[in-house]
User: Which sequence fits this backbone?
């Protein structure tokens, strides 16, 4: 991972690619959760198809929580 | 008072609070300021927080005694200004110079870093505008309790507890609420919640100061701020009038001072840590579980490192035990006012941890997750904290923490890890979080553990800044970090403002006349209109049955005479709608507000049909729906029998306080 000079970062490609994929994955997810609605306001800009494809991912965690909440309500808690 | 004047008043109030704090901490600061070991901004913020803690307790005591009048508040503030004298002025001057120096140092940075600093500044300005100028929003907890109690207290000069759905809230520790009340009493209305913004700003500065202590570069500190600014559970509460940022500011500052242990002479750092931790717990009781062990670990660790020769000697263990005992004693001492308040108002000295009366329920029993839900929930950590939207979660921590976390593997291995301040803080935070999850697995809400969670931003920021500085070509990771640093704050700022009328939100939605934010500004929101109908029609002494959580806009005299907890219990025990309506009338209720979504049970209890018709009611009672829109309705109650009169009504026995007292004829017509 580290080169001879501790001030310089020279990491191997697999590690670099993994970190890149991790960060871009985080960015995408954040966009879907946070930024998605912003872009919903401009349907012509992004197109309906992209939104339709993204929607299941956006609501993934929210569905999870909704299921728990609904269950709680049914149980009268 | 205009909004600009209200905003100025909030700033002036903050300065006066600081003056009192600096007066109290003068000796401790003098002890260390000469040694140039503490930044002036951290001293300034600490003084502000100590002033806040002391004044909150004082305002609460005055409220309990019925002496919370603008004259007394003003006298206390002026007194603190006069007595703080030159020292407060000196400290302010140094802190401003330090801040100016930091700001100017960014001029030497590259354009990208300067642009990021500008983005950060713009985000703070946007938050400030929303906080000072934004209205209290229907649906926010502030409109149900956090701005309601201060409004009543400012009007009544007494601490009047809230009832019904927000009854339990009155057993919590009040810090933010007391300052809102003081500001409202002095003339700032909704702008009083701007004090939350200033306190949030204080938390941000202290977090950056911890970063500086932990060896973070200036650039890393800027990334810390960016992380903080897209932690929606933080930014939301800087704006909406809820008080979670108060606990966060005290908690973060407690960690800062715990890190000063063994660096400062005597026990000054320990005592300030104890004070700040005590108030952090006072403001947010969950800090007792999530933050106190974290602070204790840092204190012990720092002391251990300061005495490398002693190892784990008996003398060191004895000293550590004594220090922890002092810390605990300070925390207990600061929690006494909370206990006394709950004893006086409710006869429940251990509330909100333990209630003698079962009618209160238990601490943290509000979430109805089953065991399998909890297991599933725990397995989604830490994603749940970052991306989850669970019941009562109310915001997330920044995704940047998770995104940058693996970059920590790129950091060079340096010396002894246990001597690293960053490692100590991160490990202590992890311990605090784990303890919280073990003790309260259902407590999925970043706001409950906010100061602990904010500590994770430091290592994430440090790692990202290191990669940006050290990556060799091709700099793909750096490119990704830059994209993330600029884009995610914008996404999350928008997400955070979604409910709180942020500028982007205005821009995208204000064209729609049905949009709630626009209705708010134009006073057309059904809740505002419903309560306005009552405000205009109700005569002094009339009472309102509030079948709705959101009540901030109701007249202050009507708020003070809402149904008490005891009356609600009697009401619920009454067998069916006819005697219930009679009971309402006897208790002086002239108006019933009904939110069919949140108070569906009340609709059933009073046998109100969907069209607003009430079939089963006393024959002598005239019930009329005077307002209806969507899910909100207002009913007026009148007696058609001249012999039947209410037994109690709202009266000003000890003005300006409104109390419920028996009428002269006690429900009978005068002959």
Assistant:
């Amino acid at each position: 991972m580290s080169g001879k000079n501790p001030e310089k970062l020279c990491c191997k490609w697999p590690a670099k690619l993994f970190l890149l994929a991790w960060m871009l994955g985080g960015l995408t997810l954040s966009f879907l959760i946070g930024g998605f609605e912003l872009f919903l306001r401009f349907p012509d800009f992004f197109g309906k198809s992209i939104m339709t494809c993204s929607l299941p991912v956006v609501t993934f965690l929210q569905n999870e929580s909704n299921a728990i909440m609904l269950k709680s309500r049914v149980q009268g808690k | 008072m205009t909004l600009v004047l209200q905003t100025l008043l909030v700033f002036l109030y903050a300065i006066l609070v600081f003056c009192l704090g600096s007066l109290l901490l003068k000796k401790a600061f003098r002890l260390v300021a000469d040694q140039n070991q503490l930044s002036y901004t951290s001293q300034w913020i600490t003084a502000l927080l100590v002033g806040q803690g002391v004044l909150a307790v004082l305002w609460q005591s005055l409220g309990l005694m019925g002496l919370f009048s603008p004259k007394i508040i003003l006298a206390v503030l002026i007194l603190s200004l006069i007595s703080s004298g030159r020292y407060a002025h000196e400290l302010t001057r140094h802190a401003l110079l330090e801040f100016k120096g930091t700001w100017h140092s960014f001029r030497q940075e590259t354009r990208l870093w300067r642009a990021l600093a500008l983005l950060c500044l713009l985000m703070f300005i946007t938050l400030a505008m929303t906080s000072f100028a934004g209205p209290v929003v229907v649906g926010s907890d502030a409109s149900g309790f956090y701005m309601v109690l201060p409004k009543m207290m400012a009007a009544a000069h007494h601490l009047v507890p809230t009832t019904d759905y927000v009854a339990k809230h009155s057993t919590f520790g009040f810090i933010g609420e007391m300052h809102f009340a003081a500001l409202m009493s002095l003339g700032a209305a909704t702008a009083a919640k701007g004090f939350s913004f200033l306190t949030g700003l204080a938390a941000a500065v202290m977090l950056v100061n911890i970063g500086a202590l932990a060896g973070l570069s200036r650039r890393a500190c800027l990334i810390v701020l960016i992380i903080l600014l897209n932690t929606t559970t933080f930014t939301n509460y800087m704006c909406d009038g809820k008080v979670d940022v108060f606990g966060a500011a005290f908690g973060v500052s407690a960690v800062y001072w715990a890190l000063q242990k063994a660096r400062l002479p005597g026990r000054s750092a320990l005592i300030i840590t104890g004070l700040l931790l005590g108030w952090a717990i006072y403001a947010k009781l969950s800090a007792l579980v999530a933050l106190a062990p974290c602070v204790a670990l840092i204190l012990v660790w720092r002391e251990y490192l300061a005495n490398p020769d002693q190892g784990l000697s008996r003398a060191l263990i004895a000293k550590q035990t004594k220090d922890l005992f002092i810390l605990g004693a300070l925390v207990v001492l600061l929690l006494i006012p909370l206990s006394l308040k709950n004893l006086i108002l409710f006869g429940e000295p251990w509330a909100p941890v333990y209630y003698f009366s079962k009618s209160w329920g238990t601490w943290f029993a509000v979430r109805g997750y089953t065991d399998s839900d909890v297991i599933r929930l725990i397995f989604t950590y830490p994603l749940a904290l970052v991306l989850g939207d669970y019941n009562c979660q109310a915001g997330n921590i920044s995704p940047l923490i998770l995104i940058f976390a693996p970059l920590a593997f790129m950091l060079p291995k340096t010396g002894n890890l246990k001597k690293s301040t960053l490692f100590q803080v991160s490990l202590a935070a992890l311990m605090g979080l784990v303890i919280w999850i073990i003790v309260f697995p259902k407590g999925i809400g970043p706001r409950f553990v906010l100061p602990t969670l904010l500590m994770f931003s430091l290592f994430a920021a440090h790692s990202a800044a290191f990669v940006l500085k050290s990556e060799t070509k091709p700099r793909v990771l750096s490119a990704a970090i830059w994209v993330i640093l600029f884009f995610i704050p914008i996404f999350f700022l928008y997400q955070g403002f979604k409910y709180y009328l942020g500028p982007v939100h205005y821009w995208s939605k204000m064209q729609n006349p049905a949009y709630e934010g626009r209705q708010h500004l134009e006073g057309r929101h059904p809740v505002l209109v419903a309560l306005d109908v009552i405000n205009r029609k109700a005569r002094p002494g009339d009472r309102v049955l509030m079948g709705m959580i959101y009540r901030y806009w109701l007249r202050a005299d009507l708020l003070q005479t809402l149904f008490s907890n005891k009356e609600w219990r009697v009401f619920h025990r009454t067998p069916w709608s006819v005697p219930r309506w009679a009971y309402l009338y006897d208790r002086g209720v002239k108006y019933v507000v009904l939110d069919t979504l949140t108070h569906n049970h009340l609709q059933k209890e009073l046998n109100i049909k969907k069209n607003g018709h009430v079939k089963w009611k006393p024959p002598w009672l005239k019930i009329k729906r005077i307002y209806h829109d969507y899910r909100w309705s207002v009913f007026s109650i009148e007696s058609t029998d001249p012999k039947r009169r209410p037994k109690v009504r709202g009266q000003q026995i000890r003005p300006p306080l409104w109390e419920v007292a028996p009428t002269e004829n006690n429900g009978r017509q005068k002959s």
Notes: The beta strands of chain B are 543-547, 589-595, 621-629, 632-639, 648-651, 659-662. The two ends of chain B are 48 Å apart (CA to CA). The longest strand of chain B covers residues 621-629.
